[in-house]
Amino acid sequence: MTLLKVDGLTRRFGGLIAVNKVDFEISSGSITAIIGPNGAGKTTLFNLVSGSVTPDEGKVVLDGKDITGWNPHNVARGGIARTFQTTALFEELPVWVNLVIGRRMRTRSGLWDALLHTPRAVREKKETTQRVMEVLSFTGLGGYADQPAGALPQEAQKRLAIAVALVGQPRLVLLDEPTGGVGLEETDNIIALIERIRATGVTVCVIEHKMRMIMNLADRIVALNFGVKIAEGDPQEVCQDPSVIEAYLGECIA
Amino acid sequence: MKKYGKAGFYLLLLAGAVVLPLLLNMSKKGKYQIITLTLAMVWAIATLSLNLVLGYTGQASLAHGAFLGIGAYTFAIFVERVGLNFWLALPLTCLFTAFLGALVGLPSLRTKGPYFAIVTLCFNVIVFKVFENWKWLSGGLQGQKVTIPSYLSEYWARYYVVLAFLILVLLIERQIVKSLLGSTFIAIRSNENLAEAVGIGSFRNKLLSFTVSCFLVGLAGALFAMVKGSVDSTVTNYLYSFYILIYLLIGGAATLAGPVVGAVGLYYLLDRIKSIGEFRYLAFGLILIVVIIYLPRGIVGGARQLWDWGKRQYNKREEVPE
Q1: Do B200 and A164 touch (CB under 8 A)?
Q2: Nearest 5°: CA angle at B195, between B192 and B196?
């Protein structure tokens, strides 16, 4: 079943076409990887899907609903969570508060609940704490709960960014280089985490440069170059595709 | 045990604030000092209101002087010209200021960071000029008299009224800050893009924070009018925006005690050194520079750091024998 459908998506920055008539589909419960050289338009593609950049042409359809041009916060509420290439966290706040904020969109208590301490405020706070605990242990961050997010080691920060995306129970998570700047051994931690995310039924789409990691992890690969989709298919196919080899790989390692 | 210690500490502070006027009354210039403290608490309420929108939500409003003045005038006009009852005029003033705040926030909160500060400062300058020149509205040089109920005619009665409202505002702000809504505000201050990415509508929440903040500064304005007994156009001066800002930064933004410490402490201190005239503002500047360089979280933030450091040292000492 198709969860996300991207149809003819285009975005120009002045004379540069950052993303040029890209279409692809992500099926429910899969792991899709987006690869390509620097400047290929991968991050712009994420920005277009998550709403932080508005497309010039084309459509983004989530589970049959056209979400093109939605605000980022509405896209998030619609069920697409994302992480950023340069790890974005609420740095001065403790890890657990980061997760409380990530959960906020699933709670409804507002000003009156805060002032009058209504039953809804109490219930939602309790539910939030429960979910935060779950995600803390799921991502293995329990030991860091009270530390400021900015003080965590790089790899733990990457996991926290994923945790913040997960805590709001999205249907699709977009991970922008989740292992960027992380050592080889620690990369395995994050790969294992991504696999566990899929196992809980959440669909994953990941931008990644480490081919060895992608070959084992992804069900499907979309390759971009100069904003254009140059190949799509399962890892073996894409890896042997001449245009991908020329643009990106040099040689196939699988 | 620890929790009771904290509650006990607050009760002690409260008892001190309640008993203070009785002690001061015994001294020679007691009346003057009580009035000074009453005004200082009004500034503390204004500073707490800025704390919500700047300290917690991260939006540097420089329009709070204008809203303070608007609150003061709205209250005066409700009481004197409309003839409303004192206790009815008070909440209506707050609601009106909040409504105006929402109207101003709608366009100005579209801007970010320093641009928002400049837009709100411009608004304050405009309001100041209007009140300065529109004699019918401001009452000209004499200003607008405010009649208060006879049971508030004693200066110490007004002290207790303002103290009660200060505590109420502290409780309100505490409730907001500790709630899920509070964490939403803090998220916007911390990283607005990420907040948007996790489903928080930043504009809506900034507008809410700004509106509530204006509600509270409207209350401060009304109390200001009550304590002074009259208002004139200087109350809308944009200099007050900066005073409130400085009280907040020195006391400690994004803390609950900071605005109170900053406003009461500085206002009282500046009043004590009134005899040196304009030179006292040099002290203002000096304190500000020292605090910003050495205590980025203000006096209260600095004290908290010191406390944590002391606790760590103490714990270390206990661990050594093992």
Answers
A1: no
A2: 90
Report the share of chain B in percent with pLDDT over 90: 67
CA B100 – CA B124 distance, rounded (Å): 13
Q: Indicate left, alpha or beta for B36 from its phi (over 0: left) and psi (-120 to 50: alpha).
A: alpha
First to last CA, chain B: 26
Answer yes or no: do B175 and A114 touch at CB < 8 A.
Answer: yes
User: pLDDT class for A185, splitting at 50, 70, 90?
Assistant: confident
- B316 lies in some domain: no
A121 touches chain B (CB under 8 A): yes
Domains of chain A in sequence order: 1-79+171-190+203-254 (3.40.50.300), 88-169 (3.40.50.300)
- Please list every residue in chain A whose beta carbon sits closer than 8 Å to the beta carbon of residue B202: 73
Tens of pLDDT, residues B224-268: 999 999 999 999 999 999 999 999 999 999 999 999 999 999 998
Residue B60 sits in which domain range?
19-280
CA–CA min distance B296, chain A (Å): 13
A233 touches chain B (CB under 8 A): no
Q: Is B201 on the interface with A (CB under 8 A)?
A: yes
Within-domain flag for B24: yes
Question: Which of A50, A52, A93 lies at the smallest CB-CB distance from B186?
Answer: A93
Q: Are A69 and A134 in contact (CB under 8 A)?
A: no
Per-residue tokens: A163? 């945790």
Inspect the interface and report whether the beta carbons of B183 and A113 lie closer than 8 Å: no
Chain A environment of B173 (Cβ under 8 Å)? none
Q: Is residue B308 part of a domain?
A: no
| A130 interaction partners in chain B (CB closer than 8 Å) | none
**Range in A26-35, B195-204, B290-299 the model is least confident about:** B290-299
Among B residues 206-225, those touching chain A with beta carbons less than 8 Å apart:
208, 212
Q: Is residue B270 part of a domain?
A: yes
> Cα–Cα distance between B169 and B44 in angstroms, integer?
10
Q: Which of B86 and B5 is assigned the larger pLDDT?
A: B86
Mean per-residue pLDDT of chain B: 91
User: H or E stretch including A27?
Assistant: strand A16-27
How many domains would you assign to chain B? Answer: 1
**Cα–Cα dist B249/B241, whole Å:** 12
Check if B252 contacts A (Cβ < 8 Å). no
CB A101 within 8 A of CB B187: yes
